[in-house]
Design brief:
single chain, alpha/beta, 5-stranded mixed beta sheet, 3-stranded antiparallel beta sheet, binds 4'-deoxy-4'-aminopyridoxal-5'-phosphate
Length: 354
């Protein structure tokens, strides 16, 4: 017997590159190009480092209170984790336990199949249609759970809340997780449905619209019973997941609604302008409601554009995967960053013989 035969072998998720060079124009991991709310900075500066010798609050009390007030939900309806990746990993572990296949789209956040493989959960990837839309009927068969991002990633397409509700209502024998990582950039959250459906979990993050990817804060909203089951699993894994700084700085971010709205507004305005410029250059793309655009050019291969942009110090995301290997996912940066991106893009276009 070889010790290697007893290892849980997995193929890990590959995150987008985090280059050391800070001069890179980083449009590859859907981070926010603006800093977090000013109150966050003040709180960080005033933080008494001596407190770090203590364990943090296991319930992330202050942050939980701020979120409950902001979203008008009860404390028992909220779960907080180390980024939404942690929330989702715990949710897969807690809720997808039937042995039946879990459903999610074939083109979607590429961590879902990694978690399913890690936990040995069977899964079926449901094919998006030609326009990358979710086919509702595909989700109406017997399953061990469903996870759908809305807006979807990397397409940016937002499905109507009515359709999401039909999927939740039609699957009351299993848990439906809606991953709303990008919902603040123009979508309608389905969190209002958590009082109506016990089988719905809505997951959001501080990493995009709240500009705090570095602190790792994510959360889920759901019925009391569902959240209790999720916490039971989480507290069987690690009680002290949320560190003091994340709890306190995250709270400040939630308190400054005006700053949050302003940041989101700026990103949306830039996104809409960049859509027009990309269309002028011959790109096509779904109508994204996220902080990114998933674009393909009619003449020039995406891989080539990706590589040439990288040489110029502009990073976007590219996947060599079936159906999407001629697309680039471009995160929306500041207006200045997007101007530089477009300038480089135009010079790549010019090089191409007609
Ligand atoms: N869901 C989706 C759809 C995402 O794109 C991301 C970002 N990679 C996440 C969840 C996880 O984000 P975080 O862990 O930073 O909250």
């Amino acid at each position: 017997m070889n010790w290697e035969d007893n290892i849980r072998r997995v193929i890990p998720y590959i995150p987008g590159e985090q280059p050391k060079d800070r001069n890179v124009i980083k449009l590859n991991t859907n981070e926010c190009p603006y800093p977090p709310a000013p109150g966050v900075r003040k709180k960080a500066e005033d933080f008494d480092y001596e407190r770090l010798r203590l364990y943090p609050d296991t319930e992330a009390g202050e942050l939980a209170e701020a979120l409950c007030q902001y979203y008008h939900i009860g404390k028992e309806q909220l779960f907080i984790g180390v980024g939404s990746d942690d929330v989702l990993a715990m949710a897969f572990l807690a809720f997808f336990h039937s042995g039946k296949p879990v459903f999610f789209p074939d083109i979607t956040y590429s961590f879902y199949d990694v978690w399913a493989e890690l936990y040995r959960i069977p899964y079926e990837q449901k094919k998006l249609d030609e326009d990358f839309r979710i086919v509702k009927e595909d989700y109406m068969a017997e399953n061990g759970g469903i996870i759908i991002p809305n807006p979807n990633a990397p397409t940016g397409i937002l499905e109507r809340t009515e359709m999401i509700e039909e999927i939740v209502a039609g699957n009351q024998g299993s848990i439906v997780i809606i991953d709303e990582a990008y919902v603040d950039f123009g979508g309608e959250s389905c969190r209002k449905l958590i009082d109506k459906y016990e089988n719905l979990l809505v997951v959001q993050t501080f990493s995009k619209s709240r500009a705090m990817a570095g602190l790792r804060i994510g959360f889920a909203m759901g019925g009391e019973k569902l959240i209790r089951y999720l916490k039971d699993v989480k507290f069987s894994f690690n009680s002290y997941t949320m560190n003091m700084l994340s709890v306190e700085l995250g709270t400040e971010a939630v308190r400054d609604e005006e700053y949050f709205r302003g940041t989101v507004r700026k990103i949306i305005a830039t996104r809409e302008r960049v859509k027009k410029e990309l269309a002028d250059m011959g790109f096509t793309f779904p109508d994204s409601k996220g902080n990114f655009i998933f674009a393909s050019h009619r003449d020039i291969p995406a891989k080539r554009i990706f590589e040439e942009l990288k040489q110029q110090g502009v990073y976007v995301r590219y996947w060599e995967k079936p159906r999407i290997d001629n697309y680039l996912r471009i995160t929306i940066g500041t207006d200045e960053e997007m101007d530089i991106f477009i300038r480089h893009l135009r010079s790549i276009m010019k090089k191409e013989p007609a």
